[in-house]
């Protein structure tokens, strides 16, 4: 302790304290923790810049040289929602289209993405790509096709064209979803009126076909009955009718009901049966 009462450290301890401070600073500058769903791109200041020939740093704790840098990228699936993109149909009408783009950086090649496009790849690659592909595809179709029959085909074509642009740039495209197509009010009203008329026409044609089939069915049944009667009439003769009459007479005579039978008084010599019940 010094004469003025202050504690004085031995000179031999000072280098140790300084070394400890330097080590703490070194470690604080040399460690990084990569969170879930992320990878780290290593940049070697004295070793050739961005490391692309090695796998990126994975999740967890890492120690790197303090003069190097690590750029962290989210490699989970992400969504871009493009609202009211203005595009032109095949006949030059302006269409508003909403679409969602599901994408993610390709983890194994994220070093090349950082080297060629950087962390702002959303604005420099994906947004221009989806807008360009949408304009190109929508320009092939009429407003009516966009509004009704071709929605799925348009969505698939936008996906394929966007994929051709962004996947060579180390970005994986998972899906493109066309959420809404907004037409000018007058065009939308005209299309809806036309679709309604087409639907009514189809319903009317269906009723005509149904009625025609029902009429044909009745005609066939009537023709069948007429043919059956004609065949039956042609096959009957006096002998068959007399035999049938005798059979009927025998059955009536055998019944328990009271009756009076007049023999030989009917047509063809058949008996007449008179009953009181």
From TrEMBL:
Subcellular location: Membrane
Coiled-coil regions listed: none
Band domain location: 30-195
InterPro entries: Band_7, Band_7/SPFH_dom_sf, Prohibitin
Keyword Transmembrane helix: yes
Record GO cellular component, one term: membrane
Gene3D superfamilies: Band 7 domain (3.30.479.30)
Membrane topology classification: Single-pass membrane protein
Keywords: Membrane, Transmembrane, Transmembrane helix
Transmembrane segments: 12-28
Pfam short name (any one): Band_7
CDD domains: SPFH_prohibitin
The protein's name in its UniProt record: Peptidase
Lineage, uppermost ranks: Bacteria, Pseudomonadati, Bacteroidota, Flavobacteriia, Flavobacteriales
């Amino acid at each position: 302790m010094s004469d003025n009462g202050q504690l004085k450290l031995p000179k031999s301890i000072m280098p140790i304290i300084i070394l400890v401070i330097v080590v703490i600073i070194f470690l604080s500058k040399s460690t990084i923790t990569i969170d879930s769903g992320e990878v780290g791109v290593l940049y070697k200041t004295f070793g050739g810049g961005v490391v692309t020939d090695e796998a990126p740093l994975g999740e967890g704790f890492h120690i790197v040289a303090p003069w190097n840098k690590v750029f962290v990228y989210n490699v989970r699936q992400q969504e871009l929602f493009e609202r009211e993109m203005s595009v032109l149909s095949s006949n030059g009408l302006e269409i508003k289209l909403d679409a969602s783009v599901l994408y993610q950086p390709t983890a194994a090649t994220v070093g090349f993405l950082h080297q060629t496009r950087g962390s702002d790849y959303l604005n420099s690659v994906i947004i221009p790509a989806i807008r360009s592909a949408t304009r190109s595809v929508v320009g092939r179709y009429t407003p009516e096709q966009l509004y009704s029959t071709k929605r799925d085909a348009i969505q698939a074509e936008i996906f394929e064209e966007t994929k051709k642009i962004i996947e060579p740039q180390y970005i994986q495209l998972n899906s493109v979803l066309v959420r809404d197509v907004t037409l000018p009010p007058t065009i939308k009203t005209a299309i809806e009126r036309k679709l309604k008329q087409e639907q009514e026409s189809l319903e009317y044609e269906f009723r005509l076909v149904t009625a025609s089939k029902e009429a044909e069915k009745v005609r066939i049944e009537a023709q069948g009955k007429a043919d059956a009667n004609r065949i039956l009439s042609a096959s009957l003769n006096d002998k068959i009718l007399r035999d049938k009459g005798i059979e009927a007479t025998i059955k009536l005579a055998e019944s328990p009901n009271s009756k009076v039978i007049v023999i030989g008084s009917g047509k063809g010599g058949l008996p007449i049966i008179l009953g009181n019940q």
